[in-house]
Amino acid sequence: MFSAALIPALLSCEAGEKPGADSFPSNPSEPEVSSGEKPCYIWIDAAANFPDFANSQANIQRDLTKAAEAGFTDIVVDVRPTTGDVLFKTDKCAQVEWLGAWTDNGYEKITRTSSWDYLQAFIDQGHELGLRVYAAFNTFPGGNTSSLGGAGVVYRDSKMAELATMLNTEKGIVSIMDTDNSAKFFNPVHPDVQAYVISLLEDLAAYEDLDGIILDRGRFDGFQSDFSDYTREQFEAYIGKTLVNWPDDVLPAGWSSGIPSPEPQYFKQWLEFRAKVIHDFMEKARNSVKAVNPDIDFGVYVGGWYGTYYDVGVNWASPTYDPSREYAWASENYMKYGYADHTDVMLIGAYASPGRVEGNTEWTMQGFCSLAAQKTAGGPRICAGGPDVGNWDTDDEYTQDQENRAITASVKVCADACDGYFLFDMIHLKKADQWQYAKAGIDLLRASDE
Q1: 32-53: per-residue pLDDT in tens?
Q2: What is the 3 state secondary structure string of the chain?
């Protein structure tokens, strides 16, 4: 369908440059090719795809067939959206009754009336097509609110609502339930939250034919989370001191990103502590999942922007990588809490714009993937990255043709920079009918594998 000569100049753009329609070189650089077939993952968001999949196994079969024909090897189907309710068998949590999704009529409530097992349908039909099937699991959200109303356990159970994260806002420390934040996160530090989430993961791991689990949003809600009394007590125990000025000793009120100036006395130790919380949770979650099913893959999705990812309390690197040598925000102890070695698969959001396919820095697709491969070395068996092909051009800078060709170009560039390719999300390929461009890229990748 496409020859290598048709790959666009998007491959050779410097970060920040937008290529002209006629500026495509005929011979883009070829990264070193690894032997063996590299996996190609496609994500299936629950809410966005709910109009098609909530009540139709025929639609599931239709679109998984398209994914397989395009050359994708693995699907990642979202079975715990940000409402915190589920689309798999468990007695620990309610099933999803409805999700909000954009349709031709606007943002609508899509109700699930079917009773068949949503996840099992993807497993059965995916395996019939030769696809590996992973379940995506939003880890720490407990509810979600939108113009359609609120949904999730934090809206049904007052005791669970008490476990919602407390945010350090300009107006003081308040529950996320009292803010406009759409996803209502739990406090990841609290043992009751961790136990609840792990109990759900254990039921998910009980699906014998499921190939893997990918944790999404396995993090704090943001820099302003969590400032509850419980978390303060745990942090004081971590540093062995009682704080006099809380929260100013760790983070000024309302501070949302970057290193504060002047830097609070315990700022770096606060970052360490938060990374340790997530690291220790990931270790417990992996062990619990493997105790149920030792053959299932345990994995995570993370954003590739490691340089600023500390704001959500996550160190997704290997514990052999020392960020303090590269980043001013990292202490020497921060490296201890890298959790890559507790994962089998890590999906990297290489969410650069269509004009930044190739490069060696963050905010280029290739850079995101190659840097992630370096930082996670010795960790996951598979580190795969790729673009968000629907939200990558919010300012409408690129033509549809350039976006289409960027999809094709991104496959080999990303896969060669790490261990595989990852595309978010199926809904975008469907809406813009871009399957052929993903297939063209995967075909080029496979041709180089031969």
Answers
A1: 333 469 999 999 999 999 999 9
A2: CCCHHHCCHHHHCCCCCCCCCCCCCCCCCCCCCCCCCCCEEEEECHHHHHHHHCCCHHHHHHHHHHHHHHCCCEEEEEEECCCCCECCCCCCCCECCEEEEEECCEEEEEECCCCCCHHHHHHHHHHHCCCEEEEEEECCEEEEEECCEEECHHHHCHHHHCCECEEEECCEEEEHHHCCCCEEEECCCCHHHHHHHHHHHHHHHCCCCCCEEEEECCCCCCCCECCCHHHHHHHHHHHCCCCCCCCCCCCCCCCCCCCCCCCCCCHHHHHHHHHHHHHHHHHHHHHHHHHHCCCCEEEEEEECCHHHHHHHCCCCCCCCCCHHHCCCCCCCCHHHHCCHHHCCEEEEECCCCCCCCCCCCCCCHHHHHHHHHHHCCCCCCEEEEECECCCCCCCCCCCHHHHHHHHHHHHHHHHHHCCEEEEECHHHHHHCCCHHHHHHHHHHHHHHHC
Tens of pLDDT along 295-326? Answer: 999 999 999 999 999 999 999 999 999 999 99
pTM tops 0.85, yes or no: yes
Q: What is the dihedral of CA 315, 318, 324, 328, to 10 degrees?
A: -40
The number of angstroms, rounded, from the C-alpha of 275 to the middle of its chain's C-alpha atoms is 17
Give which of 118, 141, 35, 130 is closest to 75, Cα–Cα. Answer: 130
Q: How far apart are CA 378 and CA 385, in angstroms?
A: 17
